[in-house]
Design brief:
Elements (H helix, E strand, L loop, with lengths): L5 E5 L4 H12 L3 E5 L3 H11 L2 E2 L3 H6 L3 E4 L6 H8 L8 E4 L5 H13 L3 E7 L12 E8 L4 H13 L4 E4 L2 H28 L4 H5 L4 H14 L3 H9 L2 H22 L3 H16 L4 H20 L1
Parallel strand pairs: 1-2, 1-4, 2-3, 4-5, 5-6, 7-8
Antiparallel strand pairs: 6-7
Helix pairs in contact: 4-5, 7-9, 7-11
Bound molecules: NADP nicotinamide-adenine-dinucleotide phosphate.
NADP nicotinamide-adenine-dinucleotide phosphate binds next to helix 1 and helix 4.
Length: about 300
């Protein structure tokens, strides 16, 4: 085994830090957490039976692997800060939800120091209990002559629990997550705010619901309970997201005009274009069935 056994997680006391802390501990690694708030750190360390270190330099200097799991905004600076302290051939990786700035910072340190760098984006949140069939986006940055051996061992470890590894590049990643994370988050935040602005209480609206509203509401309510700060960063720190917002603005403008003018041809055109686009999707034929499966679960719950 070329991948050493000591891993330090910067941001170990956070949601994702703990998920990966447990993962590496369960796979026989010696795990050390670093974060700023000692009380939170102690609590996490007791929970997972791992170590902690309050000095950033000490926490990483003997580590074979360093994982950075702190807010998106602070990650590039943290990478540059720890770069000089890493030992030769150490593997450093982040798990941020945006890749452009982080990829540049990792490239910078791999050009300056004899270390190995990879950037990961787990497509799941801290609530996960089993990683099987979840996706982990991977961006290879590069490093020493041991690079391929080291990262292959890490990726094999992830594959061994059923994670699906998908390799990508920073620009593609950020454009696609603007659509797959930013857009659904935005629609659901706007959905709840649109309802609120009508001053109709949600409980009252629920009494008037058909299936579509109920499912949409459950989806929105689950999103609105998540990490506000990170959801903001995912939209505001991604330059690609602004371009999507501009597209959305012009589409909304067009939609309003169609409705105002009772333009049934324009409406049918938009509807059909959406239909044609979704027909290219592998899930298309099963989507209606999935919808009713979800509804069955919701109905069961409301009967209890
Ligand atoms: N949550 C998700 O669903 C999800 C999914 C995929 C990827 N990610 C990525 O995972 C990363 C962590 O997210 P999270 O949800 O685990 O966040 P979190 O729960 O808020 O945890 C953040 C951790 O970072 C530490 N921290 C914050 N600022 C720091 C700084 N400047 N220097 C050192 N430590 C700092 C915090 O502890 P102290 O404040 O005590 O230092 C805490 O341990 C983010 O980059 C996010 O994009 C999250």
């Amino acid at each position: 085994m070329i991948l050493g056994k000591r891993i330090t997680i910067i941001g170990g006391s956070g949601g994702m830090g703990k998920v990966f802390g447990k993962f590496f501990k369960d796979h026989g690694f010696e795990v050390t957490f670093y974060a700023r708030n000692e009380d939170k750190l102690k609590q996490a360390v007791i929970e997972l039976n791992v170590h902690y270190e309050l000095s950033l330099e000490k926490s990483v200097e003997n580590a074979d692997m360093v994982m950075i799991s702190i807010p998106i905004n602070s990650t590039p600076d943290m990478i540059r800060k720890v770069g000089p302290f890493l030992k030769k051939n150490a593997l450093i990786f982040d798990v941020t939800s945006l890749k452009y700035a982080v990829f540049n910072a990792l490239t910078e340190i791999k050009n300056k120091f004899p270390v190995n760098c990879i950037s990961l984006h787990p497509m799941f949140g801290p609530g996960i209990s089993d990683m099987k069939n979840y996706v982990m986006m991977v961006l290879k940055v590069g490093g020493t002559d041991q690079y391929e051996l080291v990262i292959n061992e890490l990726l094999e470890l992830f594959r061994s629990v059923g994670l699906i590894i998908t390799e990508t590049l920073p620009e593609i990643h950020d454009k696609r997550v603007a659509l797959t994370l930013g857009v659904p988050h935005m629609f659901n935040i706007l959905f709840l705010n649109l309802l609120k602005s009508t001053k109709e209480p949600l409980n009252e609206l629920t009494r008037f619901t058909g299936t579509t509203f109920l499912l949409q509401k459950v989806f929105a309510e689950s999103i609105i309970q998540r990490e506000m700060e990170m959801f903001g960063e995912i939209q505001m720190e991604n330059q690609e997201f602004l371009k999507i917002l501009e597209l959305f603005e012009s589409l909304l403008h067009k939609y309003k005009k169609i409705i105002e003018e009772k333009n049934i041809i324009g409406f049918n055109e938009l509807f059909s274009q959406g239909l044609d686009y979704s027909k290219e999707d592998n899930h298309f034929h099963n989507s209606y069935n999935y919808f009713y499966e979800f509804m069955k679960i919701l109905k069961k719950e409301s009967e209890n």
